[in-house]
């Protein structure tokens, strides 16, 4: 079994009731999970509809936030970013201009540079994505769109057709790199610029 806490040190503290959930299931259920979490946020969040923004977060012009979404203390979101399908940003997450995030959790201290896409993924703390790097969440090019992952040398079925990646703490992803659906990156991994990561053929 895949242990999310092995990849993300802060996961259990942030989501204590979900420590035994697979990351693809966790991402698939993000909308209901965040909708429930919105009900118990402290008073230093401003909640409008299904979007909660901490009073110390900074959001530039022309950002689109489609709830449910939680933007935590110290976050920055650059102009023209697009967040949809359920998004959780932990403390001091930076999302640069023109990024798109869909149905994903990004844990504290991580940064997307600009023009990144993150779909149906779980990113740890201290992750850095350089400009133009992409986390794909769907096999458009395959007849069989079921997503599998490699864990300890074993191929595991996820049972879903949309899942991007589990990205461990302090991973560095170079500019214009692409992570294929079902990518699992150990903490402190480095993905080179222009690299294609395709762990399951």
Automatic annotation (TrEMBL):
Annotated keywords: Acyltransferase, Transferase
Gene3D superfamilies listed in its UniProt record: Hexapeptide repeat proteins
Domain of life, per lineage: Bacteria
Domain Mannose-1-phosphate guanyltransferase C-terminal: residue ranges: 66-189
SUPFAM superfamilies from the UniProt entry: Trimeric LpxA-like enzymes
Keyword Acyltransferase belongs to the record: yes
Name listed for the protein in its UniProt record: Transferase hexapeptide (Six repeat-containing protein)
Highest classification ranks of the organism: Bacteria, Pseudomonadati, Bacteroidota, Cytophagia, Cytophagales
């Amino acid at each position: 079994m895949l242990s999310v806490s092995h990849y993300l040190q802060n996961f259990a503290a942030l989501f204590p009731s979900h420590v035994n959930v697979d990351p693809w299931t966790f991402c698939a259920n993000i909308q209901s999970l965040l909708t429930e979490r919105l009900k118990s946020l402290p008073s230093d969040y401003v909640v409008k509809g299904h979007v909660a923004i901490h009073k110390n977060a900074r959001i530039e012009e022309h950002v689109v936030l489609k709830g449910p979404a939680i933007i935590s203390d110290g976050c920055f979101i650059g102009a023209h970013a697009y967040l949809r399908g359920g998004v959780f940003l932990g403390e001091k997450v930076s999302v640069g201009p023109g990024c798109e995030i869909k149905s994903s959790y990004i844990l504290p201290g991580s940064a997307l540079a600009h023009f990144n896409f993150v779909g149906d993924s779980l990113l740890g703390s201290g992750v850095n994505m350089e400009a133009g790097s992409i986390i794909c969440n769907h096999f458009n090019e395959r007849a069989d769109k079921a997503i599998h992952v490699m864990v300890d040398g074993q191929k595991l079925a996820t049972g879903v057709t949309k899942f991007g990646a589990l990205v461990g703490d302090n991973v560095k992803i170079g500019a214009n790199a692409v992570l294929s659906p079902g990518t699992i990156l150990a903490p402190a991994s480095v993905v080179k610029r222009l690299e294609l990561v395709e762990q399951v053929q």
